[in-house]
Amino acid sequence: MKGGDNGTVTPLMKQYNAIKAKHPGALLLFRVGDFYETFGEDAVRASKILDIVLTKRGAGSTSETALAGFPHHSLDTYLPKLVRAGERVAICDQLEDPKSVKGIVKRGVTELVTPGVSFNDQVLERRSNNYLAAVHFGKTEAGVSFLDISTGEFITAQGDKNYVGKLLQSLAPAEVLFCKREKETFFQSYGPDFRFYALEEWVFSYDFAYESLTRHFNTTSLKGFGIEGMQEAITSAGAILHYLSETHHHEISHIATISRLEEDKYVWLDRFTVRNLELVYPQNQDGVPLIQILDQTTTPMGARLLKKWVVLPLKDVVQIKRRLDTVEALTQHSELLDELYLHLKQINDLERLISKVAVRRVNPRELMQLAKALDAIQPIKKMLAASAIPALVKLADQLAPCDGLREEIKNVLKPDAPMLTNQGNMINDGVNEELDELRKIAFSGKDYLAQLQQREVRNTGISSLKIAYNKVFGYYLEVTHAHKDKVPAGWIRKQTLVNAERYITEELKTYEEKILNAEERIYTIEFSLFNELVLQAMDYVGQIQQNAKVIAVIDCLSAFAGIAVAGNYVKPEVNDGHVLDIKKGRHPVIEKQLPLGEEYVPNDIYLDNEEQQVIIITGPNMAGKSALLRQTALIVLMAQIGCFVPAEAARIGIIDKIFTRVGASDNLSKGESTFMVEMTETASILNNLSDRSLVLMDEIGRGTSTYDGISIAWAIVEHLHNHPKFRAKTLFATHYHELNQLAEDLTRVKNFNVSVKETGGKILFMRKLVEGGSEHSFGIHVAQMAGMPNSVVLRADEIMHHLEKEKVSEQAPKQRMKTAPKNNFQLSMFELQDPQLQRVKELMEQLDINTITPVEALLKLNELKLLLKDNGEMVR
Predict the structure, then answer these.
(1) Does domain 11-113 sit in CATH 3.40.1170.10?
(2) How many helical (H) and strand (E) elements, i.e. helices and strands, does the chain have?
(3) Which pLDDT tens digit goes with each residue over 565-594?
């Protein structure tokens, strides 16, 4: 990039090129005076994303280059837009005061902001974690780590590729790191939809990672974190620490620990199930995910924790019961619940506030918010301690009062402290003697100026005299031309305007110096006192992080209690048995979407390993089979995250894996048919079964021919029933009524159907599960309800009746179709070749609609009926 007409590079552009070369993949915001500028391709991209003007530097010369910029104080407005567009943004600041430098100002990148590494409130979502993930593929297993730098949470896991894929989908990182040579492996395993950044191969060295982690945590080994020996997990975690260094994030003391995400602790939800059950994200634009119903939390920490609970349900009965008991206690103490809610509302984002303290990015207003949050924790601690409920008392004990910091912040900072530290007016009076003295000088000096103005008006008789200030020559006296002949001889003229003259005096300059020196010194002292306060707050990082975790748990459990009361949910009995018994269960999401006054039809579900392991559910489309399957899974999942459930009663033997094959999820963009996707997901289920699995299958085999479909579905049910090791509890919804025959041969297979009522040729969906199979799919009725043309519905009905009549014959299916009644494609009421129908036509033509009486019309109608009856025709 050139910088002069003669083709030479200017010192500024030489500096820019050197810095840009170190960050080739990032969009460089280059600070020049009061602006952040972008050049070349960066400018073209920035102008499109930010909708700012694209201009040219050195237009018409050999050094011409694209240029786009914005004022430096607008960084918080424009930076989030760039990051959300997927850009990695390098912020290059002036590292010295331009006033004190001759020549080029020293500049350098002070921060590299990426989708996964940011502290900016406009980039982050308050109620969601912003994870940076790293994936490392070993020979047999893969490692994955997640870091939210804005909260300090650092977690790692190791397992097969499916487990890593499930975590990536569940925790939804904003950015994923992997080794350059593993790019294809990553895309083949998890798809190209993640925002990613590929690092050099040496970064994914186990020894380098181990040393990085032990150095950061100041330990000799990683045994204390429970990850010693997890080679792939450690390697991925080390890559994240390296990336932080590469992006100029060196103040990371708030990342104080790393925890292991153990696969054995949580219910297995594969990525298909997380998607099919719509736990966190809806499949359709207008859909409502489960989290939207459950998330009644008041704090950002609580909202973030709840998302993790939903995608990581527990398998430990003791831990589940502890949560359920706490929720039960809160539902029984409504006054306590109401008070908790009021105090939780006062608590801002403790986690992210204290992280900003740790990295020294906190502003005065945020420090006051921290103090107010700590204030709100005090009554919560007292209430829980006095509740006499063991689980709540234990939570109260874990809350640190942090009295010293609370009091210090309130003593030092003004209640309405500003956001910026360079504006002054942050520190209370009485904190620093010199500061108080300087404030008196600054303010009394301004009072003196007002007195001086009044005195000079009296002395000179210039009524319009005023004292003002500008940056060029400080304070001055301004006199209009009409009064300039009254100006005393001692005044020194500094500037002539169109309508006035400006003057200074020795007295004015003396006070100006005194005031300006005082103001400058005030800013210096205030900034110093604020920094001291931040350093004091840094001593409390660990305690406040602990408080944030406890408050998040209290918030989630309080939300569960509130939902239970409002939704008439019950406490489930969770045990180590093998019985799943739900009485009058309801779908938590659909129930909330029903029109006012309409009630959800509840259903019972009973599954065990001995007598009723597999339930085959038949019934028409739209009758509610899919909703029944989903509600069963959601009730189990809600129980195992410690939430009450929408039912009259529920007894749940721990489920360790939930598998779903629900709905048609085409992957046509990758060239896979509905049937291929269906079979892939089904294969994943059958290859990963356990004795405590819950399997939900909806309309398996519909993506292929009828007989293929029936055969596949039949074989799957047999496999699930006859598995040599595991008796997975299964709900199998199907429109293949032939599968009802399986119950005759397989002892633990039972037939149920979702009942419908047929009246007057129409069907009414009862949405009630009853024992026994259904022999009729009512598909033609559903087609009619959907608005299918009447001619199509009638023709389908004709063919169906033929096939049902011929089914008992020995004819092969193809032969039955050959003998089906032909469609002559004539929409006329009559076949004119039929003599009797010709007679009907003649009778109809003789009728005079305008003169016929109702009685005559009935008599004629009867005559027509008799005529058709005599002909042996069926009147329909």
Answers:
(1) yes
(2) 29, 27
(3) 999 999 999 999 999 999 999 999 999 988
